[in-house]
């Protein structure tokens, strides 16, 4: 009788674990909450202006470390593509370079009748594909213009006329709408120890640089307002650029505690590299500005928690009170969903009028909307097809080339390099080594012909369990053991488990956190977006999904070592596909895994970053910052002289890697095995799918 679904369903009938699909998310969140709790304890000690000034300096330094470094300010090379005269104002269509050959499409609205220098509002846009051409944004822009403000708005990266993966035949992005583009390239940025926020923020800073070149603009009266993703950018730009006098983020400010309790981490730019681990919360983005004027704009039914917004406002008030400038901080809220409302807009107009010293009526007025054609800036409606230029991928790839060159140089001193790799990989991945045997719950045994199936729930590093089955030969004595890791958990490899146990192996097949019974949330059609958000959450706390799962593999080893029917000298491991990087890390940190086999492993993180397109199934395998110190071939090299089998190695798209790629990426692995006189222990080969297990068994039994 084959292994049944009943045997594979280890924890499904336990009410204690009815939320198993969210165990990974809750584990990451609970660690974030501890960081945030520590931050709150620090904030509560701040009483005086001097203490807050010291905190501001610390936060500014942290923000520069986790978002920067920024490039040098190069010529903007602004070009005006058209000027349109409208009733009451003039519209200039502009293209400037925030970096060399990195084009920003923007529109400058100048009210009629300006004498001298006028206040200006920078209006970063939220996550709409059409950017500022949407009526939602035009209402705000044109009302501000009617009240006498100059307004500059621009297309965010991946939106409007700046789609990064534009397909001319399709007429839209190959990747998906704006947040998809942001997260897709943002993950590549994180692997390089950078962030997508840096690119978005730099566009905003350079937009202010452009405004400084305009004679109409008063450089001392600059305000910023944006909604949703524009609220994110409003907060970032205002925190980093001292020239911003007044900030009014809308439908964004909450707090990471409430965000994690509700919708969770969002797209790439809303997550800073190791941000929460460094004690950064939404409040810091505004507190660092104190006592400059700030208006928080919120709605009570927003998916950005209103409770978090109120709590953040209450905390920021303490800073403004210490500076003696409570009147410079305000909050407006309306009973509405995630949207711009008349009440909030009018509060914003009044706030800008007061603090930018421009008298007028704050009433929200009817406006005459502009057509898409009137707001088209480039000839073809897309930078990529009109003028070309660089993308974020291009710039990040250039950064990655430097990192990879540094790795190649370090590899020249092989053993020192590998020693450094183990240390760096542990730190960057956030790996925590489990030294003790985990507690567990035994959940029953099934008898088969020649073997037993035992079910267990092992304790993980946090408040979760690792469901697993253990197949044991029905023979006395000690058995060699195999830990079998599959992207779908134990349900993805039960046939192989049965084959191996019949050959005399004890086989443990776990559902590593986020897979199998704990992975239902990550297996639907939009799973890649869920993986992105969990990956970003882990990056915020200086951890990785991979490191948590690697720790669970080692917990499985600790459990096997506690049994008296396992040969402790013969504990092996097999991994499939995107679980291979996880096994590589676990094996690097755990010597008890004496033989390792990887089926269709990803060749390198470098391949993910150096190529424009990659398969999103590899997202949970990534480690933020990895390329600053190591790559997957380095981790494989650390396993020498242990037995290492690699079958059908794949590229970043999950396709069989070309010979040239194999030769270049795996040269260090071969060097490490050669240097330890163990070349025969390294096997790299192609193999038909049905031959994997036969090849592994044959090799291991020999």
Rg value: 28 Å
Give the structural class: alpha/beta
Q: Strands of the largest sheet, in order across it?
A: 1-2-3-5-4-8-9-10-11
Average pLDDT level? 96
Dominant shape = elongated
Major sheet details: 9 strands, mixed
Oligomer: single chain
Q: Spans with pLDDT under 50 lasting ≥5 residues?
A: none
Strand content: 15-25%
Number of strands: 20
What does this structure look like?
The protein is α/β, with parallel strands linked by helices. It is built from 23 helices and 20 strands. 38% of the residues lie in helices and 20% in strands. Helix 5 crosses helix 16 and helix 17 packs across helix 18. The longest helix is centred in the N-terminal third of the chain and has 21 residues, at 23-43.
Q: Which key phrases capture this entry?
A:
single chain, alpha/beta, nine-stranded mixed β-sheet, 23 helices
Characterize this entry briefly.
38% of the residues lie in helices and 20% in strands. The chain has 702 residues and is α/β, with parallel strands linked by helices.
